[in-house]
Amino acid sequence: MRDIVSCFSENAIDVSHPSCSSYSNTKCIIPSQTPSLQNAVTSVYKIVLSNQNRFLVKVTWYNNNSVQGLSIGFGDNSLSAFKLNINSRLFRKKKGTKVFDSCASKAELFWDLSNAKFDQNPEPVEGFYLVLTFDSEIALVLGDMADDALMKKIKTEKNQIAKACLVSRQEHCSWKNTLYSTKARFCETGVFHEIQIKCSGENDGLKHPVLLVSIDKKTVIRVKRLQWNFRGNQTIFVDGLVVDLLWDVHDWFFNHNNSASSSNSTSSSSGCYAVFMFRTRSGMDSRLWLEEKLAHNKDQHDGLEFSLLIYACKSLQ
């Protein structure tokens, strides 16, 4: 009987079991240079209130040149309901609260970034908290500094806690050293996995560029002659989940006149974008994820699987 991995693809790879890798004899990706740095991170959370009302909360941390900040949006509205410039002397307010109307509810945000540590990334790693409430419920808690005193004060007025789960994460980076490293958890009960993406070329003694992707130092993608195989996909298994891994590096080779789009969450420097996506799907769904399906799910706010999108802007300098 064929195992579940082979049922999806002859080349499917199970990260959870070392003997299942079809690249078991391939050297794992070991960083030989400083990884490229993030300039923006956007996390989308699905919130389910006790009255079963559902909506999306988008939290974006960005660091564009001399501007470092935070923005929060709700639903499908592209306009941010809250913005905070972290490093601005004129508008900086690293601790406070704000009340505003959103999604036909009274929303209140509590934040403290006074001692936040960023570790050269736009998103803090520790020493901060963000607490978002809607009407009588605590909707979202981020950070490690939401102490008992603060939570007790909020719970005095906000008695219920809504359900919140991360459904999408987008990471933008400047691809200077052809190496990018990040961590992701593909389900709420799973563990964080180390993900590395590396593009090797002439500087590494290779005649043609090669794309390598590893999870927990285990190679899951090795694409030779990348300038010809600039788009593709691979099925892998992580923590028992079916994960589609897709890549598109077309613009790196064929769109050198393109400029990176400028927004409050991306860098304004010129370059060409490549896209890498990891997305979980139901084991009963044999179809590769399509953009139309995601748009439909966003409208329904149901059946949203986790997705990690990495936008790599290759510097032209």
From TrEMBL:
Superkingdom, taxonomy of origin: Eukaryota
The protein, known as: DUF868 family protein
Protein source organism: Ficus carica
